[in-house]
Write a structure and sequence with these properties.
172 residues, mainly alpha, 2% strand, elongated, Multidrug-efflux Transporter Regulator, Chain: A, Domain 2, 2 domains, 2 strands
């Protein structure tokens, strides 16, 4: 029996591509300019048309951005993948760097969670902090020790809400 190649999906116009991938046309142009998407062919009328696999590429770019990769890093990874030579050393290096970024984000989110939990439980005093202790605490969370020390709130600022021990926090 002769193998038949599945039919290729029809190319997409920029509007259809943006809708399918959940991006704006402006974002699409930025990705093209930054080299994340190759320049699309154009119809005789001058309209851009994108291969159907562009949707998957845009979704991958969005997911990589979501976890903290820069457009430059994404462009490097995609360029290597496109030519079939992803460097394991580069991927490991980027992964190590991302772990640091993720750890900082988790630390900052934990600070926000503590304040939100205090407010949710009725402690509105954190909202009246005139010394912006919350902001300083938030910005220093997950930062290097030197940066954290530089961002410490002034001594008169109220302390961050104390962590209330619950079943969820005692298990971590």
């Amino acid at each position: 029996m002769k193998k038949t190649k599945p039919p290729e999906a029809a190319p997409l116009g920029s509007g259809a591509l943006c809708q399918a991938a959940g991006v704006t046309r402006g974002v699409l142009r930025v990705y093209e300019r930054e080299g994340l998407l190759g320049p699309p062919p154009r119809t005789a009328a001058g309209y851009r048309v994108y291969p159907a696999d562009s949707v998957q590429r845009l979704l991958a770019i969005r997911q990589l951005k979501e976890v903290g990769f820069t457009l430059r890093e994404i462009a490097l990874l995609l360029a290597e993948r496109d030519v079939g030579r992803i460097s394991p050393a580069r991927v490991r290096k980027l992964a190590r760097e991302q772990l640091g970024v993720i750890d900082q984000r988790i630390a900052r989110l934990q600070v926000v969670r503590e304040y939100a939990a205090a407010v949710a439980e009725g402690d509105l005093s954190v909202l009246d902090d005139p010394a912006c202790g919350f902001l300083l605490h938030f910005l220093s969370a997950g930062a290097s020790p030197a940066a954290a020390a530089a961002a410490q709130p002034v001594p008169s600022a109220p302390a961050a809400p104390t962590k209330r021990r619950t079943a969820a926090t005692s298990q971590s």
